[in-house]
Every structure is written in structure tokens, then in C-alpha cells.
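Please describe the entry underneath.
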Amino acid sequence: MRCDLHVHTVHSGAADLLVLNHVSRECYSQPGEVYDAAKRRGMDLVTITDHDTIAGALELAGRDDFFVGEEVSCELEGGRVLHLGVWDISEPQHAAIAARRREPERLFAYLAEQRIPAAVNHLFSPLTGPRRAEDFHLALGAVGLVEAQNGMMPPASNEFARLAGRAAGLAPIGGSDAHTVARVAHAFTTVPRARDRREFLDGLRAGFTVPAGGAGSYARLTADVLRVFAGAYRENASKALRSLPDLARFAAIAPALPILALIPLATAIAYLKEGWLARRFFSQYRATLPSVGTDPTPRLMGPKLALGGEP
């Protein structure tokens, strides 16, 4: 069975990308639209993982082919943040997670006690801010799954997560990290031989997972940000604006056009920063591993990545 384990909706909050952070939500997809897109693209099961809320997921709860998920912002000392995917949770469990997300040890203990499937998402991405080497070891030692196929991350970022997860003995999963309906099910997780939701979730807990699908690219990131910008315009444009004649409407929206023109530049900066910092973070992590022989790099990275190339 297949499920996209990382999907956002309109409930995920404000955008955190340069240019859009003051004028836009992170996502404008409605839960029902996400569900329909996932099923249309071959997903057997559906979940929603909004940031620190299950409001969108509860709109679909109760369907036989749906389970509630969430992307938890786990806050570390010094303001650093890890993103954790958690699934098959109830409203009381969500409340308990929310009460513990600023206390990592209590949060991880609760997830283990409740047998809640949990993964560390986009581990080497700068999206969630700075990292220390100990953050990687904390995350990889506290959960059973690692997101190794994120549909919005560059291939190298996914490969770094896969390698670190393998070194730590974690099972890999995949999810689209979709912030628009167009990207839903671009990446997903398969649990072989699972025949229903319960068997899929049992396989997820046991790590019987196979990530699948595509990775991100500059073109996909730019296209999605433009779609989010269009969603922001639709949300913020009043009925009065939409009723204006074409010329008056253009004059009213003209101040927003410079933002539109800046989006390809902003996404280029974000994409380049993603690749550069992911490699830097992975190097930090790799330097803390016990060496085998004189240089642990080829053992962990393989010859191509060790030389600095793309995976």
C-alpha cells in the first residue's frame, strides 16, 4: 500500500519564505482537495501533516483510508528546531504532543510510550534554521524513521538523510512535502504486503517501508511558490476588487507585481542555500562519526558524493 506521508493544507500557517512571509499562507490547499488528488494519483491511504495542528486532518478523520498526521516543530535549546512527522494520532495525543514539543526528552519519551510512528523530516535542510552536530544524533537516536525522499528537497539533501538514517539504523520513508495540490503524491511511502490501513501503520511502526517518487528542483520550487502567490492573491483580493473593470483592477494590484517579479530570484537563493547548507550540515554530522581506518568519508558517502558531486 502507498501513502504520501508529508502533505500540507491551508491550516499550516504563514509562509516562511523570503518575499511571501508577510503576505501569504504557506499553503492554500483545502483538505478535501488534497484527499482527492492523492487518491487520483494512486495513493491507497491519505494523511495530512500540517505544522503543529490537526485541524485540517480532522476534517477527513473517520474515513477508512485516512489517518491523522502532523508535522511537529520540536524546539531545542537555543531556538533550534527539528521537524518531526507523526501519524495515527488522536486529539488527546495531539494535545499531549503540543504540551511537550518544547521539551525534546519528554516529547520523544511520549512518542515511544504511545508507540506513535515518528520520523525526522528533511534532517539536513536549512529550512528549520541552524543546526549543531548533536542535533542530528539526538534526532536519529530518538525516532525510528527518517524522511529520505522528500519531494521538495534536492536529490543531495535526500541522499544525505538516507545515508545518515542507514548509519543510525533507521527505516527510510517518503513524502511530497506538498504545499500545493499539484505536488501531492510526488513522493510517497510504500509498505509492501500491507492490505489495509492497520497493516500499513503496523508496517510503518516496524520500519517495513520503501520510499518512492521524485525529488525537488529549482523549477518545481519556483512553480509552487508562484502557485502559493496566486493563492494569496485570491484570498486577499476583495469582492470589490474582483468587480472592478480590468484597468482599475490592474492599477489596484500593480503594487504586488514587484513581489511576483522577485519570486524566481528568491527561490533561486533558497534553492542554492538549501544545497550549500545541506552539504555543510552533513559534513558536520559526518565529522562526529567514529572513523574506520583513516577516512570515514567513502564508507558513508560513496565515491561520488565524497568528491562533492550530486548523488
About this structure: Residues 247-252, 292-299, 302-311 have pLDDT under 50 and may be disordered. The chain has one domain: 1-311. DSSP finds twelve helices and nine strands in the chain.
